[in-house]
Amino acid sequence: MTPFPTIASAAAALAAKQVSPVELTKYLLERIGRLDGQLHSFLLVTEERALADAKAAEARFMAGSARGVLDGIPIAHKDIYGTAGIRTTGHSRLLEHNVPAADAMVVRKWAEAGTVMLGKLATHEFAMGGPSFDLPWPPARNPWNTEHFTSGSSSGTGAAVAAGLILGGTGSDTGGSIRGPAAFCGIAGIKPTYGLCSRAGVLPLTYSMDHTGPMAWTVEDCAILLQAMAGHDPADPASSTRAVPDLLSGLNKGVAGVRIGVVRHFHEVDNQVNATVQKGIDDAVEIFRTQGASIREVVLPSLQDFQAAGTLILITEAYALHEKWLKTRWNEYGELFRDRVAFGGLISGADYVEAVRRRRELQQAVAAAMADVDILLTAGAPTEAPKIEGMPKWSSLEKPGFTIPFNLTGQPAMTICSGLGEGGLPVGIQVAARPFEDALLLQVCQAHEKATPWRASRPAMA
Amino acid sequence: MSEPLTQAEFEALVKRTGLPLTPENVADLYSAWPYYARFAARLRNPARGREAEPAHLFRPLNAEGV
Questions:
Q1: Which fold does the domain A7-303+356-456 belong to in CATH?
Q2: pTM of the model
Q3: DSSP for residue A387
Q4: ipTM score here?
């Protein structure tokens, strides 16, 4: 593991000139070369670009004009983020040779902050479903045990962060694609409030549910990365015009006085979690209570209601996006993506409208339930990561996920590590806040992280 | 879509999309169709009044597009 395992610690070392951006970048490039053959977390390593970025950052440090905490920090982008002059594939044969002319807004913002781009990371085809074994590149594997799944679709980011190949990266989240890999890979991942971060230049999946966000080893690192990606962008129709608050303002403040609602029926009834996940939730409740938070149970509509509305909206909007290619280039898609999205062509207009009407009801129900709580707590995933081989094709439809409710409501939600379960694989809790209370969400998650030992454990391969 | 479909009805629905599916593709999709039919039925229960608008926000823009 790098002697500077987090962005915060690396930034301090860079500022103190204990290490140079070039040294740090070369160190991580060596790790990628040595370890990623087992993980497949990268679709493309941009070594030349990384070294150029690092040398530029080094020159700024030497000149005393470093740009801030992210200057010289090595990161990578999920391969749905457009990168000017650098292949952006969506992990799909259809875009195998796609080279955008411009950076996505978030890519540009991180570059302007001085980050060093190490490459493009694996996803599932067009950020949906997975794992697929019939695409031009293999799926990413879990560094805690490479026979196991990473969840998805920000699978490469989850694997690369956990294995210490990058210090942070971008993810995207339409139904849980940041929070799922964060849970299975034992890292931190935040889906910010809808509209807080631009999606312009990022390959869309479902316009009304797509979110961009950061993934990193710690909550503090996610806060640092999120601060640098948030902000209004006229090129994104959903972009909020609100001023971005100081997202690090709540760090190290604990949770005294915070009102936390536990959505027990989500993880005890609607989709019962295993004992390790349940223990992680119970431990979190005790940690928060001990630190002075008030705890009560909150009842929301069932996960099945969120699943029904979310799934139909997701596949219908995705189908509209892909209809032309599905009709003309069907065999170029992977089986999993095309078969799931094909159902979007079978959903009636009335079904879609009913889903969007239900969405408003669900949003109002959650808002009402949060009238006297600040935070919601439930599971990030029901179990540890399953084996990557032999996953049933329609398994995602059988039980409702824990993450899609907050894609429908647009409120911020974060998954953090809450323990190690069977086979040493991690499990995670999920914490959500009201819309635009991302700073409070980060505060609460960091309070949990600091009170638990899980940041001291890395995958053995790392 | 909330009513169960026979395989023949499902095949007719698929044909209407214009997707180039093989009979094997159609049979595979039909096996998963009950999930989606249940989702669609669930969305209609309980029924809602006509005043219940969709969540999508329509915001008129001024001459400057703001």
A1: Amidase signature (AS) enzymes (3.90.1300)
A2: 0.97
A3: B
A4: 0.92
